[in-house]
Amino acid sequence: MKIRQTGIVAAIVLAAAAIFAACPSQPQIGANGTTEDIAQGQIKAERFQPINFEYKRASDLEKGLAAYIEGANARLGVLLSALRKGGMKEADLKEMVKNNFIGTYLANPVLRKNDGNTVVGWDDIIPELRRELGGMMYVSVHAVHILIEYIPVGSRKDPDIDFRAVIRTKLACAPTDCTWLEGEACHRNLCTWESCPGGI
Questions:
Q1: 3-class DSSP string for 168-187
Q2: pTM for the whole structure
């Protein structure tokens, strides 16, 4: 059977808590008071109702990231097909991934196995995937889960990178269950996504 590349089913969560945790806390101000009144205990802090955060769907940030992931996962589908069929030398497979995934979230991936163990980097991941996928009847990219985190200005190692995404791609296999591949992407102010410097 050939590899079937399914569309991305992305669960995208904006890490709002990280944004506010990194920003200075705001003083609580009563309905008719000032911050000085609160500090002196003249006004009791009000009990706030729950606040719900929602990420705006179909934003330029999301659409750009989806296109970026789909491009990388199309290449991943070719690799999965080669691993399932066998016949390629391990050295050739390693050379393939190093050339095909430059600049993608899979430039420096982590393989998360079902037994809880992790394997880091293509040099070690390729032998694992050869053992796991060799002879499978079916292998495909099944789903993608994404966690997007805003990087506050004062915490940026690179001043042009404002968002970081952790991307986990679930592989579907038959007849047995399959594993996850995980990587990172960073968003620049110019609205482009790329592999993060240094990887995970």
A1: EEEEEEECCCCCEEEEEEEE
A2: 0.71
